[in-house]
Amino acid sequence: MTKKPTVFITGTSSGIGKATVELFIRKGWQVAATMRNISAPNDFSEMEDVRLYQLDVTNSELVNEVARKVWEDYNGIEAVINNAGYGAIGPLEGATEEQIAKQMDTNFMGSVRIMKAFIPFFREKRGGVFVNVSSIAGRIGMPLYNIYHASKFALEGLTESLYYELRPFGVRVKLVEPGPVRTEFNGRSREDLITNDQAGYKHIVLNVNNLYGGFFEKGDLPETTAKTIYKAVNSKGSRLRFPSGILAKFLMVTNKILPGNWLRVITSKVAGIKSEI
Ligand SMILES: NC(=O)c1ccc[n+]([C@@H]2O[C@H](COP(=O)([O-])OP(=O)(O)OC[C@H]3O[C@@H](n4cnc5c(N)ncnc54)[C@H](OP(=O)(O)O)[C@@H]3O)[C@@H](O)[C@H]2O)c1
Q1: What DSSP line would sit under 76-88, residue for residue?
Q2: Ligand 1 pocket: which of 16, 149, 218 to mutate (most atoms <8 Å of CB)?
Q3: Could you tell me the pLDDT band of residue 133, with boundaries at 50, 70 and 90?
Q4: Given strand 171-178, what is the order of strands in its sheet?
Q5: pLDDT at 138 over 80
Q6: Which residues form a coiled coil (predicted)?
Q7: What is the CA radius of gyration of the chain?
């Protein structure tokens, strides 16, 4: 009997990660699903084709240990999906060093650690695919997501460079770029960067939060992003970027065709951000 293909996915306790596990199972894959807390109730403990591994992507030692274990358990795997992440939002002035470091450590360094752990295996095997879950926020800067944008822009640059470096070994890299998705991203996973009332950001924070709240409410289902991830994993060509969902695609095209700073002017208007200059 031929072995089912295997995918390794980070951050599978909710949202996009969880929907991606479910989709790959339906498509006949085996899944090495990682979570920060595998003892919390989850839908996967009884599933035959899912094995759970406890993993916090900020823990280098654990990342290396789990990668080695997964490779051994499955006698090699075919795909790695860097999905774990969260968004810090608010004025940069209100961010502590710890908040900034944690955002970069999770969204950017987390993916770097996982890739470094699996690259030697994929290189030796002469095959494998990394899918990094970036965001429209990895292509276009929007108000108040400053450090989150930095983490996703960094992930985009890293992945684009690795395209050249890993291709000679038959290893593919892909970026999935969702717009707003209805998950825990704007709920329990969200981290607020807070300034005091005198600093004068209050109305910007209020207006932008209202605007984003509407986007997230009407956002894509995580299943839509899961489908894009599946497509990226199976894409054998040179395509690097996979925008996901209507808003992401719309913004990407708008950003390309609008002259100069129009998108920033329109975004400021829509977000109710007045300028003093
Ligand atoms: N939702 C959106 O609108 C949207 C749009 C574009 C891109 N994205 C990206 O999509 C990815 C998944 O987010 P989501 O929308 O599905 O949100 P979510 O429902 O909050 O899921 C985030 C997942 O990441 C995990 N995670 C956070 N920090 C971690 C760490 N240090 N180590 C391991 N796992 C960690 C969470 O685990 P715990 O349960 O332990 O917290 C959770 O499983 C993120 O990279 C996000 O930036 C989301």
Answers
A1: S-SEEEE-----E
A2: 16
A3: very high
A4: 50-54, 30-35, 6-9, 79-82, 128-133, 171-178, 241-244
A5: yes
A6: none
A7: 19
Q: Which of 212, 170, 183 is nearest to 85 (CA)?
A: 183
Among 169, 150, 79, CA closest to 115? 79
Identify the structural domains of the chain with CATH numbers, from first to last: 6-270 (3.40.50.720)
Spell out the residues 6+ positions from residue 213 whose beta carbon is closer than 8 angstroms to its own: 186
Q: Name the average pLDDT for the chain.
A: 97
- Model confidence over 212-241: pLDDT tens digits? 999 999 999 999 999 999 999 999 999 999
User: How many whole angstroms separate alpha carbon 51 and alpha carbon 56?
Assistant: 16
Ligand 1 atom nearest the C-alpha of 183 is: 19
Residue 86 CB less than 6 A away from ligand 1 = yes
Closest to 169 measured CA to CA, from 229, 114, 129:
129
